Amino acid sequence: MTTVAAYAAPAAKAPLERTTIERRAVREFDVLIDIKFAGICHSDIHQAREGWGEATFPMVPGHEIAGIVSEVGPGVTKFQVGDRVGVGCMVDSCRECDNCKAGLEQYCTGGNVGTYNSVGKDGEPTYGGYSEKIVVDENYVLGIPEGISLDVAAPLLCAGITTYSPLKHWNAGPGKKVAIVGMGGLGHMGVKIAHALGAEVTVLSQSLSKQEDGLKLGADHYYATSDPQTFKDLRGTLDLIISTVSAPLDLGAYLSLLKTDGALVNVGAPEEPVSLNLFSVIGGRKTLAGSGIGGIPETQEMLDFCAEHGFGAEIELISADQINEAYERVLASDVRYRFVIDTATI
Q: Which of 2, 112, 188, 230 could form an SS bridge with 93, CB 3.0 to 4.6 Å?
């Protein structure tokens, strides 16, 4: 066991504070990672404040992890000391179900093991990236290509893959009109990736305050959803809409923007249920869908794709003592576009 410094929420809704946690000794197939950077995802806040239901405390959030391998177990073949690596939202799964065998570990039928606020196969609670080090089985570690610096790579492990996976699955590319709802941590990555895939990209945001940024990152069009004219102008014009917001939306209004056979895919998860008039999907044979993160193979593919196209996330680097302030700023949409903790400050 190794004792490491970390920032943890001691109880639901309590401010995060500096503490120490135990990391397991390196097993045969384990990789010990010196964490260099950890992104702050909105889901960290949902879980630390029990917005998505009962959680386990103390909680060390963080599933956007980038660092350097400092030790490997004797059976490890995929990584060696000194490698640049990342860890995303899961650190294990059953490995035996059809989904796991197909590289869709995120949809493990028995439930994957979350990087934090979960329980490992050893019965011990998992602790995330707001810490100095982490030990992870090599099969759930990703290689970060040389083309991306570690600080801007960290948010790709959640925000990047959460938008890349549905964009690929629903065939975003040349000739497709794709809209991204929300211009935040996930949304800005959705814009970059959809543009790099060759789609015609529209941003649907509450206001036009981030329009200049959106166009710079690759959007072709930018509309304010607070303007009723937007929903008249865009009616029936889009092939695919990815909603990244975690607030409840008028789903019928967004479904009306789709062409026949279009899809509205939710990757943001509101804390409360939403309602829907089913005629919104019946007319036009439309799909209302959801998507999680990606599996390990697709996450590696996403990292390689981002490196090939020369981009990571747009970040604001903070020190660990600014985490609580950063949480409040995320809730106020006051970040462009992802807070990343410099874990040397823990």
A: 112
